[in-house]
Amino acid sequence: MLALAIFAFTLILVIWQPRGLGIGWSAMGGAALALLTGVVGWADVPVVWDIVWDATFTFVALIIISLLLDEAGFFQWAALHVARWGGGNGRRLFPLVVVLGAVIAAFFANDGAALLLTPIVMAILLRLNFSAAATLAFIVACGFVADTTSLPLVISNLVNIVSANYFGIGFGRYAAVMVPVNLVALAATLGVLWAYYGRQVPASYRMDQLEAPSAAIRDHLVFRAAFPLLAVLLLAYFVLAPLGVPVAAVTGAAALVLLVLAGRWHRGGNGAVVSVRKVMREAPWQIVVFSLGMYLVVYGLRNAGLTNHLAGVLEWLAGHGLWAATIGTGVGAALLSSVMNNMPGVLVGALAIEQAQGIPPAIREAMVYANVIGCDLGPKFTPIGSLATLLWLHVLARKGTTITWGQYMKVGLVITPPVLLAVLAALALWLPVVGTP
């Protein structure tokens, strides 16, 4: 009960953030309390750090890359191209924006897709004179697709990185399983969003209100470096990961290259130079402290025996076959993430899967991926399911669009379950096809 009380207290501080208290300090305060009360021991600190360090620094590097490209105008350029591809047809523009969100989520993580794309789409819709209802449809689509399609690559979500590192899943193996599953996630997401918001989307819009995509580019050198750098980065993940090179090292190297390009001293004919100082100031350094602190608190739940009880449930599910194990684990992980946040949720699920006894390897692997899916999609049930959602709502409020928790849950509870079930079913169908590693 003490471990659970410390976890609940820490989570409340993280979500509430009294007097602007950073999430890292809230989590570290909970970790200190867990250490002082003996819920976790000092020997647990290096164990937890070994679990989180690669995922944490990969995430920070990805966000730095995203912020640099955003400052250079890369995402606005992409959004303007998509708006032009819509050809003045609003019902064509809606799925194009959803697909753009999915692509950004795949390569720049769910946080990048939600926090960077949403304000850009809002600005474009304002220029196109979309109604408030139509604008809301596109805004929710951006926030929703950012999480539901953050499955395909290890780097697409912090949850993916933690789980892949914990179970030693290679970058190539992970992609072989989850890329096809993510395509189902994209199709299901587009389907439910269109069913819910299709009537709000205007039939047409005026193309003459759009500026040329090239006008969005603010730093031509950084912009020109984006595509080759991303191509090399993706290739490096597949080549270097089997050699034991940490994902954080590969991503960090790419971030360093962009920082060097953006921080050049001359302007020449390349346009305005990106503010490296601003980017480094806005990078999520708090997530480093948060990861260690929050996972120490979660490890206290493991020490208190909570994950043993969950392991028993997983053993029971495994006894009923692949489909029961996949659906049950995924739905359970989703519900757990929606009430305790997906960051601690994924570790709780991973610890329980590891502790479960007598589970066949194929079913255990299905549970690992189902846990990831549940923790990626589960946050869409409630605003507290992920920090990205809380930050997304905060960004919207600053832009003059307020979505209350009640409004959010009304939408999330309707459109999340069918997507979650479709994706878990796709996993159960695809895993026997792709085979065991």
Automatic annotation (TrEMBL):
<feature type="transmembrane region" description="Helical">
    <location>
        <begin position="151"/>
        <end position="169"/>
    </location>
</feature>
<feature type="transmembrane region" description="Helical">
    <location>
        <begin position="283"/>
        <end position="301"/>
    </location>
</feature>
<keyword id="KW-0812">Transmembrane</keyword>
<feature type="transmembrane region" description="Helical">
    <location>
        <begin position="58"/>
        <end position="80"/>
    </location>
</feature>
<feature type="transmembrane region" description="Helical">
    <location>
        <begin position="221"/>
        <end position="239"/>
    </location>
</feature>
<feature type="transmembrane region" description="Helical">
    <location>
        <begin position="115"/>
        <end position="144"/>
    </location>
</feature>
<keyword id="KW-0472">Membrane</keyword>
<feature type="transmembrane region" description="Helical">
    <location>
        <begin position="408"/>
        <end position="431"/>
    </location>
</feature>
<protein>
    <submittedName>
        <fullName>Arsenic transporter</fullName>
    </submittedName>
</protein>
<dbReference type="Pfam" id="PF02040">
    <property type="entry name" value="ArsB"/>
</dbReference>
<keyword id="KW-1133">Transmembrane helix</keyword>
<dbReference type="InterPro" id="IPR000802">
    <property type="entry name" value="Arsenical_pump_ArsB"/>
</dbReference>
<feature type="transmembrane region" description="Helical">
    <location>
        <begin position="175"/>
        <end position="197"/>
    </location>
</feature>
<feature type="transmembrane region" description="Helical">
    <location>
        <begin position="245"/>
        <end position="262"/>
    </location>
</feature>
<feature type="transmembrane region" description="Helical">
    <location>
        <begin position="92"/>
        <end position="109"/>
    </location>
</feature>
<feature type="transmembrane region" description="Helical">
    <location>
        <begin position="321"/>
        <end position="339"/>
    </location>
</feature>
<keyword id="KW-1003">Cell membrane</keyword>
